[in-house]
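User: Design a sequence. Structure:
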């Protein structure tokens, strides 16, 4: 009886040890670091928790992101963080601050392309292990109204940024997820915005996770 139990426990232990623990790198700005929401509400953290609930072993996400970062500042942040590891999954969401500051689209084209190439390198040179998330539309927020910003102009410019990001991603074989329309629902649903009146709430981030979760789960399950 003792031998049987020992064998059973050994089998269980070997199965647990054999299960890979995936790694995930999330690159971005305020939308990735989760400005104005608890750490548990950040969308990369919510994504990891959902994967674990599906019995997928994955480490806490490494997040390289800071509120206010442009593409160039994210590049500098990556260099400062000295990211050298290889990851099973890498996400990229960046560009809103380029648009907000009125930078030329040529800058975004160049630097977003470079960042996506870096992301692919971090994923071991495998574009299929990388995904891009579109830029949300902050023009529908209380912040935009208080600052008397032009919501139509913001929407048009962000649509152009997102179309460019999608094209760059697809040209490299990288998955692109559209969440911008979700963000525009905040125009009539205040629960989708955090208490600062600008950034997404945990509820909106959960919608983003829902958008990409099936693809991520299937992607990791094939490894």
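Assistant: Done.
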């Amino acid at each position: 009886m003792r031998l049987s139990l020992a064998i059973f426990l050994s089998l269980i232990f070997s199965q647990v040890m054999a299960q890979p623990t995936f790694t995930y790198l999330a690159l971005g700005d305020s939308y990735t670091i989760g400005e104005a929401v608890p750490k548990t509400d950040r969308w990369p953290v919510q994504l990891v928790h959902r994967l674990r609930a599906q019995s997928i072993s994955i480490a806490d996400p490494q997040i390289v992101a800071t509120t206010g970062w442009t593409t160039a500042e994210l590049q500098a942040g990556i260099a400062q963080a000295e990211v050298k590891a290889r990851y099973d999954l890498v996400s990229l969401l960046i560009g809103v601050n380029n648009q907000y500051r009125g930078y030329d689209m040529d800058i975004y084209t160049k630097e977003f392309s470079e960042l996506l190439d870096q992301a692919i390198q971090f994923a071991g040179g495998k574009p299929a292990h990388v995904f891009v998330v579109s830029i949300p539309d902050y023009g529908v927020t209380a912040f935009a109204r208080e600052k008397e910003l032009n919501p139509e102009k913001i929407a048009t410019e962000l649509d152009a940024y997102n179309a460019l990001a999608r094209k760059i991603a697809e040209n490299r074989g990288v998955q692109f997820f559209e969440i911008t329309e979700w963000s525009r629902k905040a125009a009539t649903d205040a629960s989708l915005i955090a208490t600062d009146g600008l950034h997404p709430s945990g509820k909106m981030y959960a919608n983003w996770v829902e958008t990409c979760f099936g693809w991520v789960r299937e992607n990791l399950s094939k490894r």
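Residues 8-18 have pLDDT under 50 and may be disordered. The two ends are 37 Å apart (CA to CA).
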